[in-house]
Amino acid sequence: MGDKLFTQKDILRIYEAGSDAVVQLIESLLSTNAQLLATNTQLHLRITALESQLSKDSHNSHKPPSSDGLKRMTKSLRPKSTRLSGGQEGHPGQTLTMVEKPDHIIVHPVKQCQECDCSLEGTKATRYEQRGTVHFHRFSYDSFRARGHHLQNTTP
């Protein structure tokens, strides 16, 4: 009797068959109802899991941006500005200055001419180009200065 729909004639026939037939029908219907409730609960949990998975993208989960698909991103609510991005004109910049006495000086001597490959050892540098870096550690820092030589090649 499980999957079929009962007409009024079918119900009356079962009623006339006696109380055992009615009890058997009700037990069958209660069993079917319990199975349907269990299936409904499982399907509801599955739908919730799939909707949760579908709503995730690279912004709110560990997924890579390539998995976002071709969805349109929402537009920024910030109004458009006439100014260019970055530091504005007239704003005083702040640059880290070189340390007067660095902890380490690294010299990069020039050993040969870039144009003719002749040796420049023993030639005195005409000027230096310097860059300073600071390496921060957890509780201290080291300052470095890199010095490159500029040499004048006197060979013809």
What features would you describe in this structure?
The protein has 156 residues and is an alpha+beta fold. Among the domains are: 8-62; 104-151, no CATH class. 29% of the residues lie in helices and 18% in strands. The protein is built from two helices and three strands, in the order ααβββ. Strands 1-3-2 form a three-stranded mixed beta sheet, with no helix packed on it. A hairpin with a 4-residue loop joins β2 and β3 (141-151). The chain is rod-shaped, with a radius of gyration of 41 Å. The protein starts with 7 loop residues before the first helix and ends in a 5-residue tail after the last strand. The model has no long low-confidence stretch (mean pLDDT 83).
Topology overview:
Blueprint: H1 8-17, H2 19-54, E1 104-108, E2 125-136, E3 141-151
Parallel strand pairs: 1-3
Antiparallel strand pairs: 2-3
Helix pairs in contact: 1-2
* Mean pLDDT figure: 83
Low-pLDDT runs: none
Report the structural category.
alpha+beta
Using only C-alpha atoms, the radius of gyration works out to 41 Å
Number of E-type strands: 3
Shape: rod-shaped
The major sheet is characterized as:
3 strands, mixed
Strand order of the largest sheet: 1-3-2
Helix-residue proportion: 25-40%
Helices, by number, come to 2
Percent range for β-strand residues: 15-25%
**Through-space gap between termini:** 110 Å
Quick overview of this protein structure:
The protein has helices spanning 8-17, 19-54; strands at residues 104-108, 125-136, 141-151.
